Amino acid sequence: LFCAGRKGGHKGRARQYTSPEEIDAQLQAEKQKAREEEEQEEGSEGATGDPKKEKKSLDSDESDEDDEDYQQKRKGVEGLIDIENPNRVIQTTKKVTQLDLDGPKELSRREREEIEKQKAKERYMKMHLAGKTEQAKADLARLAIIRKQREEAARKKEEERKAKDEAAMAGKRLQSLSLNK
């Protein structure tokens, strides 16, 4: 059975089988622990007179028992492992009457950033129109310089036009004086 050049695999080596008697003993121990826990719970709750326990003993087809069965029957290994993940969101169903449509709606990060950006732009435009921003001050200074240059250019044109008019008038006077002679 041993092949030359191959070593035996590790899968069949150290298998240990539990005997049926040991399995029965383990099951009996688990049932005994469950009974003791129930007795302790009944002892502590029996003193207070919990009405839910009394109802359960009276009604065998109670809806609470169905809920317990549903909670115990979990898929896969969920029943074996207790998960306590603080990030896990448990889905809860809400009725239509419980929905709060008038309350403040939770905005996403992008929506919040967009609103903040629009508000900042509006504030900047108000400040800009009031002339309080650096850019507005620079624009106003540039406009003042341009106004002065335009005023000077208009004044020079006016002076040149007056000078031409005076020269033309002087030329006409000379012609009229020369014609009169």
From TrEMBL:
Residues 85-162 form the Casein kinase substrate phosphoprotein PP28 domain. This is HAP28 protein. It comes from the Eukaryota. Residues 60-69 have a biased composition (Acidic residues). InterPro entries: Casein_kinase_sb_PP28, HAP28. Pfam families: PP28. Residues 1-117, 151-181 are annotated as: Disordered. Residues 50-59, 102-117, 151-167 have a biased composition (Basic and acidic residues).
